[in-house]
Design a protein that fits this description.
single chain, about 475 residues, alpha/beta, Rossmann fold, UDP-N-acetylmuramoyl-L-alanine:D-glutamate ligase, Protein-Tyrosine Phosphatase, Chain A, 3 domains, 10-stranded mixed sheet, 6-stranded mixed sheet, 15 helices, disordered N terminus
Length: about 475
């Protein structure tokens, strides 16, 4: 497969690109690029394995998508690719894909999403948010503050912003906010003016091998900040010369006086020169207050006023599947979250229990990837034990083949919680219909989102 560096010769001029084909267009990052080039007036088409709500949205916006790995389908929908065609692919697509091999056979150089994002952002004032978790919400917060305050920006987000119902935003200036993905070392194509690092927990060990190699990549990312640029990182991370932030602790920027009033989180912000009191955060969760501190630090560097920041954070509605309220009525609370790493689960479950300390928590969890389940089975078991009841789904394999002895039962066997069981999706719906839990949390990064609407219907129809 022909792949070049981030500033590849064929793409030195974005204006030369008239046609774009995305192999794996249904991914959240790939779909953002599809929308970006479509907005520029390019002919945009793509392939993905299955139809989803996201691919349906792209289709409704005028982007052609096929779902059969057949090169003949390309020529029907896209005509014959030519020199003005940019081909972008995701590493999640198998190397034996007929469509990938069609393009390489025609002599096209295939480009990863991160390479294209690196080129798009190279000439702009770039704010890049990295981290093994927290990056999607933090980058969305930063983008919303800049939009809401009138500063403006463009943004490439790793989730669907609830304020804008999109994962890509278009601005009228040269500021761009990008989510910097550590998977496959993708973020090393970026050279930001401001870099934010939210977390560096062990993850993607199928790529990195061990935590030290992941830490090395984050250090490299931080070293690629443009001359005169700035690093903002969570307190305690092994990064040098950054502005540190935390909640209820010692750092350059802190959130303190954190409290819950009428179901809303409030806090005060303070750094070495600015104080903002009584901030109401439009979404729930202690981890989201921490994300907000990082977002405030970025906004202050772009001369956004404290009052404008405060107003924007109150109107921030979060990101789809990031601590998203699905049902919020007197008898039942149902929250859905993308959490798929033990520390993300800890943040989600802790926040739910902080908000609703007197309610029994039922959690439905779908493990994501065999390697992640193998590497963090003990951590998953410890965190899931914080629930009062657990329904465990099968592992969502994504790009991976099974590993002997690695399954959902591995986590269950390590748990101390007695009220736990393995079940399928339809069985989970039936259990919820029978038990009608007062507090329900669904968590996972696979296809567990397919349960959201059926479970919502069940709980909303309870008399």
């Amino acid at each position: 497969m022909q792949v070049e560096g981030p500033y590849f010769k064929v793409m030195m001029e974005l204006s030369n690109i008239k046609r774009v084909y995305l192999v794996g267009i249904g991914g959240i990052g790939m779909s953002g690029l599809a929308r970006y080039f479509h907005q520029l007036g390019c002919v945009v088409c793509g392939y993905d394995k299955t139809s989803t709500d996201l691919t349906d949205s792209l289709h409704n916006e005028g982007i052609c998508i096929i779902f059969e790995d057949e090169p003949a389908e390309i020529q029907i929908s896209f005509r014959q690719p030519d020199d003005s065609t940019l081909v972008i692919y995701t590493p999640a697509i198998p190397k034996d894909s007929a469509i990938l091999n069609f393009f390489t056979g025609k002599g096209f150089t295939l480009h990863k999403r991160s390479q294209v994002l690196g080129l798009i952002s190279a000439s702009k004032y770039t704010i890049a948010v990295a981290g093994t978790h927290g990056k999607t919400t933090t980058s969305s917060m930063i983008a919303h503050i800049l939009k809401d305050s009138g500063t403006d920006c463009s943004a490439f987000l790793g989730g669907i912003s609830s304020n804008y119902q999109s994962n890509v935003l278009f601005g009228k200036n040269d500021i761009v906010v990008v989510e910097a993905d550590e998977y496959d070392r993708s973020f090393l194509t970026l050279h930001p003016d401001i870099a934010v690092v939210t977390s560096m927990d062990a993850d993607h060990l199928d790529i990195y091998g061990d935590h030290s190699h992941l830490t090395e990549s984050f250090t490299l990312f931080a070293s690629q900040i443009k001359q005169g640029g700035q690093l903002i990182n969570k307190q305690g991370l092994p990064l040098a010369n950054g502005t540190t932030y935390t909640i209820n602790g010692e750092a350059d920027a802190v959130a303190e006086n954190i409290r819950v009033e009428n179901g809303n989180f409030y806090f005060d912000f303070k750094n070495n020169s600015v104080s903002i009191s009584n901030i109401c955060l439009g979404i729930a969760g202690l981890h989201n207050i921490e994300n907000a501190v990082a977002a405030i630090e970025v906004a202050l560097r772009l001369n956004v006023s404290g009052e404008a920041i405060k107003s924007a954070l109150e109107s921030f509605r979060g990101v789809k599947r990031r601590f998203e309220y699905i049902v919020k009525i007197d008898k039942h609370i149902f929250i859905d979250d993308y959490a798929h790493h033990p520390e993300e689960l800890r943040a989600a479950i802790s926040s739910v229990k902080t908000l609703y300390p007197d309610k029994k928590l039922t959690t439905i969890f779908q493990p994501h990837l065999y390697t992640r389940t193998r590497d963090f089975a003990d951590g998953f078991a410890e965190v899931l034990d914080m629930s009062d009841e657990l329904l465990m789904l099968d592992i969502y394999p994504a790009r991976e083949l099974p590993i002997d002895g690695v399954n959902s039962e591995l986590i269950l066997s390590k748990m101390k919680l007695w009220n736990k069981r393995k079940c399928g999706k339809q069985e989970a719906i039936q259990i919820i219909e029978n038990e009608k839990p007062e507090l329900l949390l669904t968590v996972g990064a696979g296809d567990i989102d397919q349960l959201v609407q059926p479970l919502k219907k069940v709980l909303e129809n309870v008399g």
